[in-house]
């Protein structure tokens, strides 16, 4: 009995020393359907708390993260575009143009890789990159901290979240990640169909059938990506810094390979491709139908099919109808 | 009395000056590392292709080349005594123990190791680049190195990989002076022994000293030659540069950053096993 009490006391002490969450700042419950995969391990280590998420959202929308206070994370990651935007390539401070298309932010808690090339494996390590990149915010973490640490609203939120008002890089990264982990899109028409709450129309159902035949081998699982990296022979980014996944792995097998993007909310995230080379969903399908560029490491699915995914005009209409069932109107208007 | 005061007023600044300059003066337990960038035995002069100033080298593949910019990071410095004792110099503190060697700024080509224990030293070890556990762009922990690497005229940060560039070489090659731009750095992720992706471009360099360096009586100056002839005509790889967007083009960051980068890394810093010198050697030890 004494031992049990001792252990309990220890546990209580330990948890008290590290107040990730407490009665005042509880873990928040994330609404995830049972057909979704488990969280990745980093989410478990940085579980969103009530104030952590409020703080993260505030930071995400704070323009003081950029050198001239002109843009915040949300300036490129716009809720109405599933936290992407409509530019072909990202536009940062002073109108500087980045290398790639802004990726949407959704269902991050289930992902193993981030960014087009999978350079980041842990979401907490991502926020620093746009802060210091010249074509993005062109600032530094100390510059950001100096700008925000005397803000009384922040002092209140840091205390509520972490126990004191100290603004540290790690706390900033963790809070932003906590907020992003809550951006879960799981309430599209497709989800309602999965939950027997709705039915596909005839054209959507035909589109789903085409999807299963011709798209699902890569855009698999309820996340609509198998999280692999593939060279699908898309037009190549003329920027000389672009090598796709090979930039990370230095492996020729990954040359111009990119992460298979999720198709959730794809209706809201035009243009498409790693540097926005396709203005519409239709143009992506036309390109696959017409034939892609050859490459030594072209994906076998395309290599074995004359570099094409043949689609009739009718099939394209049907596919687009299905893809629109992945739109989650509640997600794009989401505010905490 | 007045006179005495006057003398004191004159003497005070002099004393202060002396006190200050003493800090900068060579003391017996300092070791000076002097980096000289060469093509074989010729010290390199930087310059544009059109300037006529730049030192021109010809590679084994017969390609002329010259540099407008040479920068590399040196860290993890250790001196090895005759008896094998290794004296680490702030190996986990980039602010005190690491430097960006920038050819264009002569003051950066000399790095002083302060307060080295007296003794006789036979070997110098250092890292080309930053070992992975420190390669995280931590401005709060290492503000000095962050500022040095991030300066607008240095550009030794690799923002997208949240690490530092280990080498940045700009220049020109071939008779038509095509652009040469070689950047190296690590993309390794995960913990040592359990890396999950990426490559480690950090290289440990081990250089025997031609004569022992005696610390304590005098402050030795160790001159380290970085022979950039080996960049293309190295111990490990003979590299032919080509421009463009093809699979093998390597002269600009497009292709070298994919698979070609590691060939430049190995030529400059060795392969970490059979070659732990790469392009480096110690030419002289001045006592």
TrEMBL record, chain B:
Keywords from the named record: Signal
The keyword Signal is annotated on this UniProt entry: yes
Residues covered by the Copper-binding protein MbnP-like domain: 29-241
Signal peptide bounds: 1-25
Matching Pfam families: MbnP
Membrane spanning residue stretches: none
Designated name of the protein: Copper-binding protein MbnP-like domain-containing protein
Lineage, top ranks: Bacteria, Pseudomonadati, Bacteroidota, Chitinophagia, Chitinophagales
């Amino acid at each position: 009995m004494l031992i049990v009490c001792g252990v309990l006391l220890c546990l209580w002490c330990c948890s008290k020393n590290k107040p990730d969450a407490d009665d005042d700042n509880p873990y928040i419950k994330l609404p995830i359907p049972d057909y979704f995969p488990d969280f990745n391990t980093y989410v478990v280590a940085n579980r969103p708390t009530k104030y952590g998420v409020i703080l993260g959202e505030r930071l995400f929308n704070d323009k003081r993260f950029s050198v001239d206070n002109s843009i915040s994370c949300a300036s490129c990651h716009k809720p109405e575009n599933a936290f992407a935007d409509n530019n072909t390539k990202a536009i940062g401070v002073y109108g500087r143009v980045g290398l790639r298309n802004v990726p949407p932010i959704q269902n991050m808690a289930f992902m193993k890789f981030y960014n087009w090339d999978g350079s980041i494996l842990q979401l907490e390590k991502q926020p620093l990159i746009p802060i210091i990149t010249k074509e993005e915010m062109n600032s530094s973490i100390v510059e950001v901290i100096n700008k925000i640490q005397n803000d009384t609203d922040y002092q209140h939120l840091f205390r509520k979240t972490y126990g004191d008002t100290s603004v540290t890089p790690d706390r900033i990264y963790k809070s932003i990640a906590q907020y992003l982990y809550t951006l879960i899109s799981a309430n599209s028409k497709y989800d309602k169909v999965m939950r027997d709450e709705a039915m596909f129309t005839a054209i959507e159902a035909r589109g789903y059938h085409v999807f299963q035949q011709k798209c699902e081998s890569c855009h698999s699982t309820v996340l609509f990506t198998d999280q692999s990296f593939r060279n699908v022979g898309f037009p190549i980014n003329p920027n000389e810094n672009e090598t796709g996944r090979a930039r990370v792995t230095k492996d020729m097998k990954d040359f111009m390979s990119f992460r298979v993007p999720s198709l959730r909310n794809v209706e809201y995230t035009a243009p498409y491709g790693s540097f926005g080379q396709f203005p519409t969903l239709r143009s992506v399908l036309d390109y696959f139908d017409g034939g892609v560029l050859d490459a030594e490491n072209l994906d076998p699915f395309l290599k074995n099919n004359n570099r094409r995914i043949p689609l009739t005009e009718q099939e394209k209409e049907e596919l687009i109808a299905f893809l629109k069932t992945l739109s989650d109107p509640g997600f794009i208007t989401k505010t905490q | 009395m007045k006179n005495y005061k006057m003398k004191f007023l004159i003497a005070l600044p002099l004393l202060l000056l002396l006190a200050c300059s003493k800090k900068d003066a060579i003391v017996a337990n300092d070791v000076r590392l002097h980096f000289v960038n060469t093509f074989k035995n010729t010290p390199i002069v930087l310059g544009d292709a059109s300037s006529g100033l730049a030192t021109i080298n010809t590679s084994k593949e017969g390609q002329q080349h010259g540099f407008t910019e040479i920068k590399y990071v040196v860290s993890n410095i250790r001196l090895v005594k005759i008896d094998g004792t290794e004296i680490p110099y702030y190996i986990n503190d980039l602010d005190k123990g690491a430097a960006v060697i920038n050819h264009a700024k002569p003051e950066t080509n000399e790095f002083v190791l302060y307060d080295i224990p007296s003794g006789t030293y036979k070997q110098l070890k250092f890292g080309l680049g930053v070992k992975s556990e420190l390669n995280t762009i931590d401005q709060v922990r290492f503000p000095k190195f962050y500022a040095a690497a991030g300066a607008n005229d240095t550009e030794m940060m690799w923002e997208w990989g949240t690490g530092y560039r280990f080498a940045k070489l700009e220049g020109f090659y071939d008779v038509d002076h095509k652009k040469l731009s070689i950047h190296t750095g690590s993309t390794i992720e995960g913990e040592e022994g359990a890396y999950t992706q990426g490559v480690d471009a950090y290289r440990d360099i081990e250089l025997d000293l031609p004569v022992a360096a005696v610390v304590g009586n005098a402050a030795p100056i160790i001159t380290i030659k970085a022979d950039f002839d080996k960049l293309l005509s190295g111990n490990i790889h003979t590299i032919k540069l080509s421009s463009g967007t093809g699979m093998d083009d390597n002269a600009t960051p497009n292709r070298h950053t994919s698979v070609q980068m590691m060939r430049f890394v190995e030529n400059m810093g060795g392969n970490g096993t059979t070659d732990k010198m790469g392009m480096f050697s110690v030419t002289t030890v001045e006592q």
